Amino acid sequence: MEKVFRFPGNPALKISKMRIRVIGIVLTVWITSVCATAQAVESPVQSTVCDLVNHPLEFKGKLILVRAQIWSDYRKFWLNESWAGSMEMGKVCRWLPVEFMHSTNLAGSSAFGTFTGRLVYEPGLIPGSIRVHLLVEHESDIYNQKIQNGIIAAPLLYDRTSKTLLRPE
Fold first, then answer.
1. For residue 124, is it left (φ>0), alpha (ψ between -120 and 50) or beta?
2. Residues 115-150, buried b or exposed e (16+ Cβ, 10 A)?
3. What is the assigned CATH class of domain 45-166?
4. What is the pLDDT of residue 112?
C-alpha cells in the first residue's frame, strides 16, 4: 500500500511520498544546473593593445577587454594604444586589426571606447610566426567619435624610440 500525505485543512488533497521524492530530486537537479550555468559566465581579462600585439599567445582562448582608440576606413578597423588604456602618454605600439561579430556604427570614423572580444590567430608571413586580430563581441563606452569625410588616409603613429611612422597593416 502506497503511503499518502494529506494536507491539513483539505483532506481531499493528497500526494504520495514517492511523488514528493521525485519532485525534490527534479528541483535539486534544476537548482544545481542553474547554479552551474551562472558560474560558467566568463569574466574578461583586461589588457592593452600593446600587450595584445606583443604577447598574443598569453591571451589564447580568453575573453579580453581593452580600452583603446579605433580607426576605420569603411572597410577595415584598427585599434591602437590610447592614454585611456595604458595610462601612459605617447605610448605607441603596432596596430591591432579588428573585426566585429555584429554591425557597428563606427565604420568610417575614429573614436575611443571599450572593446570586448577574443583574439583570432592566423599563420604569419614568416614561418612559425602568427598574425592576430581582435574579434569584437561587444563595444561600450564609445566617446569622442569623429566621422571621417571624403578620402580617408591610413592613420599613422609616430614612434619616438625608432623615430618612424607606423601604419596599419
1. beta
2. bbbbbeeeeeeeeeeeebbbebeebeebeeeeebee
3. mainly beta
4. 92
The DSSP symbol for 101 reads S
Grid cell listed for 48: 592593452
Q: Give the bridge partners for 115, in sequence order.
A: 66, 139
Long-range CB pairs of 26-33, under 8 A, 24+ apart, other chains included:
none
Q: Are 45 and 64 in contact (CB under 8 A)?
A: yes
Element (H, E) at 49: helix 49-54
- Give yes or no for a contact between 58 and 45, defined as CB atoms under 8 angstroms apart: no
- The 3-state DSSP class for residue 87 equals coil
By CB neighbour count within 10 A (0-12 exposed, 13-18 middle, 19+ buried), where does 160 fall?
exposed
pLDDT, tens only, 110-158: 899 999 999 999 887 788 778 899 999 999 999 999 887 765 556 666 6
The domain segmentation of the chain, as residue ranges, is 4-39, 45-166
Question: Length of the chain, please?
Answer: 169
Q: What share of the chain is helix, strand, coil (3-state, %, to 5)?
A: 20, 40, 35
